Amino acid sequence: MAERKPIRVLVVDDSALMRRLITSILSSDPEIEVVGAVNDPFAAREKIKELNPDVITLDVEMPRMDGIAFLEKIMSLRPMPVVMFSSLTREGADVTLRALELGAVDFLTKPDGALQIGLAERQAEIIAKVKAAARSRVRQMPLPSKPAVRCGPYPLERIIAIGASTGGVEAINHILRAMPADSPGIVITLHMPPKFTASFARRLDDVCAVKVKEAETGDVVLPGHAYIAPGHAHLRIKRSATHYVCIVDGNDRVNGHCPSVDTLFFSVAEKAGPEAIGVILTGMGRDGADGLLAMRKMGARTLGQDEASCVVYGMPKVAFQRGAVEAEIALSDMAGQIMALLSGEGRRKRAAAAQPHGISSNSRDAK
């Protein structure tokens, strides 16, 4: 058996200390080789030609050419996996979200306090994200389609729950931009730190037919609205008469994450049952698989993003393997399939979906 080649990484950062610390952290893993560390995009351009790295870590703020401008050139001329480093500020969040829209695989935030201590505490996360980037699929995302034609109103009991991680920014963007203004209420958990979720919600609200906001406790889940879990707490729903209400609380880590997709999905399974549609999108790890399985057992329709259209086929893969996913769908078709389920196309009887002693085998295509 041939020995696996190490992941070749180029570090691009104008701070000599950051270059040294990132290099040290990545080099501590035998599966990673840092082949170069440079201080600006012009030097990086030459190193990319010379060294042909598998992954680039890229600082957002650099002299001569900022990271976003350089990322645009990379993704247009030589698409490759890029992990961005950004600050934990609203401005940093806006820039990072732009980077993810341009094709960066993932991002890491710089510590607020002592740089060396902060990065050391996140060593495992930094290594994991670089490894995931090396395995990711870098491609031009499909252009968001126009919002679907209004075909509601839907009963207030109908609800759509979506979970995602790595690659989820653009996947959620793509789906929400295709949803009509009268779609059922949508609740979303995406693995993202505080401040970033608020910026993400604002950016989506500017371009979507549905209204998008960061969820707050007490928000009534209304048709034509989407609610994104804040980066510092879990999102759940509760039932109030014919409505659902958002509950935002708790900062414990579930499956290593806060907010957690499983936390949202379990609450939707309990409170909405067969009135729900669950969707699990691109991301590494297993968060969401158990919650989606609970949703399916309670009669919800469940969809997973297919491997070919995922940036990282991790969360959808685990969910599919556990029988939580009723059908795997390409990202470009996901919004249409959600609308088809809502309109009753190919609908099975809901009672048949709830099988307390097990569920039917899943498939690659919706029926």
UniProtKB/TrEMBL annotation:
Organism: Rhodomicrobium vannielii (strain ATCC 17100 / DSM 162 / LMG 4299 / NCIMB 10020 / ATH 3.1.1)
Intracellular or extracellular location(s): Cytoplasm
Active-site positions on this chain: 165, 191, 287
Sequence ranges assigned to domain Response regulatory in this UniProt record: 8-125
E.C. numbers: 3.1.1.61, 3.5.1.44
Name of this chain's protein: Protein-glutamate methylesterase/protein-glutamine glutaminase
GO cellular component: cytoplasm
Maturation and modification: Phosphorylated by CheA. Phosphorylation of the N-terminal regulatory domain activates the methylesterase activity.
Gene Ontology annotations of biological process type: chemotaxis
SMART domains in alphabetical order: REC
